[in-house]
UniProtKB/TrEMBL annotation:
Secretion signal, residue range per the UniProt entry: none
EC number from the UniProt entry: 3.5.1.28
Domain named N-acetylmuramoyl-L-alanine amidase: residues: 59-194
Alphabetical UniProt keywords: Cell wall biogenesis/degradation, Hydrolase
Catalytic reactions of this protein: Hydrolyzes the link between N-acetylmuramoyl residues and L-amino acid residues in certain cell-wall glycopeptides
Spans traversing the lipid bilayer: none
Lineage: Bacteria, Bacillati, Bacillota, Clostridia, Lachnospirales
Alphabetical list of InterPro entries matching this protein: Amidase/PGRP_sf, Amidase_domain, NAMLAA_amidase_2
Protein name (database record): N-acetylmuramoyl-L-alanine amidase
Enzyme class, first EC level, given as a word: hydrolase
Species for this entry: Blautia hominis
Taxonomy, superkingdom: Bacteria
Length: 222
């Protein structure tokens, strides 16, 4: 009987330790995420975006360092009507479903909301042979045409413009998934190459906007 009581005590203590340890780890991750969000909010020229990083796992966030950023790849979700949060959560669920290996650094929703899923210092499973030197952006869309809403397009231009400025890239470094594998992605920009060229011109303009914002901020601190 004494042995049984001791055993129960050990099991109880182990359970308490596990709960406390789990809460400490959750608090650490929450603090880290809040810190990342605060830092992103201070980036001059960046559009507002939510940081909701995936758990590190072999199916959507392998945690492999992205040593050099040489480009940005634009995608579309091919899932009409879905939201940025839903696509982010799909990526997260792959760690349990093991359905496939796919993810993206950012997802932009139909309302223009932006969610960051993977740090820009790590690779995402999005762009095949260019995974190791590019950042990827998935864009939501309303229907089968793949055309982005005005809000999605505006957020995409602002995000890409800021990323280009931040990492020393030009609009010529911005490509479609199609340009890597000839997959029809993002569909509207593949079907309408003139719209793609206009998008890159808009990115050029946004890079200049970000540069001016940085210059103005620098002048205030002198």
């Amino acid at each position: 009987m004494l042995f049984g009581l001791v055993l129960l005590g050990i099991i109880f203590a182990a359970g308490v330790i596990k709960i406390v340890t789990g809460k400490v780890e959750d608090a650490r991750l929450d603090k880290l995420e809040a810190q990342v969000t605060q830092e992103n909010g201070s980036f001059i020229g960046a559009p507002p975006f939510e940081v909701n990083l995936l758990d590190v796992n072999e199916y959507s966030r392998p945690g492999i360092p992205l040593k050099k950023i040489k480009g940005i790849v634009v995608h579309y979700t091919a899932n009409p009507g879905s939201t940025a949060a839903e696509n982010r959560n799909y990526f997260e669920g792959l760690k349990d479903s093991h359905e496939t290996k796919v993810s993206s650094h950012f997802v932009i929703g139909i309302e223009g909301e932006i969610v960051q899923c993977i740090p820009s210092s790590e690779i995402a499973y999005a762009s095949n042979s260019r995974n190791d030197d590019t950042l990827s952006i998935e864009c939501c869309h309303k229907d089968e045409t793949g055309e982005f809403t005005e809000a999605t397009y505006d957020s995409l231009v602002k995000l890409v413009g800021w990323l280009c400025y931040r990492f020393g890239l030009e609009s010529s470094d911005v490509i479609r998934h199609y340009d890597v594998t000839e997959k029809i992605c993002p569909k509207y920009f593949v079907d309408h190459p003139d719209a793609w060229e206009q998008f890159k011109k808009d990115v050029d303009g946004q890079i200049l906007v970000v540069a001016e914002e940085v210059k103005a901020a620098d002048s205030k601190t002198e």
